[in-house]
Design brief:
By secondary structure, this protein is an alpha/beta fold. It has one domain: Glycerol-3-phosphate (1)-acyltransferase, CATH 3.40.1130. Strands 1, 2, 3, 4, 5, 6, 7 and 8 form an 8-stranded mixed beta sheet that branches.
Length: 231
Amino acid sequence: MRGQPGTFLYGLSRKLCRIDVTGIENLAILEKPGPAMIIVNHTSVVDVVVVVGTLHKLGYTVDGPCLDTCTHHRHLRPVGTSDMWNFPLAKQIVEGSGIIPTDQHDGRSAYRAAREALRNGECVLIYPEGDVQVNADASPREWRAGATALAKSTPLPIVFVAHHDTRNLGGGSVLKSILKALTGIVRKPRIQLVIGKPVMPIELDNLSGSEVTEFLQQRLIETWQQAKALN
């Protein structure tokens, strides 16, 4: 399982919950060569299981490079917490994958690595809220600056992925989230996942930094609202 977090999380997601996916056709833009971004809302540490596991199933994996013939539509470069390297099991799974580690309090090195990945024509997956503090209704919150800066760093399509309500799988502290998620083996909560219509680079051409942030935040909110309406 070394370097295969996508494979691992797909298997885990099948055991823990039922996921309804809408808008799969909007992922097709990612099959074209060149830089791209996937932007995802964040409410719990376990929503990574839902999102990354589902994307892997659909052919967009965070696993490391394939050694033989690649059957995936695309390999993704997610920005993820560096804490994963502090635990032996997690480290074994993520080491050798495309995950870009970020420090919760200083994301500068992660930003530089993500920007370089985009310049190399890769697809970066990012949680723009930066943490899992959650609103009462689990709606998307304000973004940290890095997501907008990446979106403006090079012309690229941006795909939005929103889920509702992963709190049914697990929420609260990291420990509480994980313990509740494990009961999903019995409960099998249902979670709605919506893949929104992509934003193309021409739509951002004449916008300032603050306007880009507002525009992209609103698109993520709209995608989340679609997911909420399906529940």
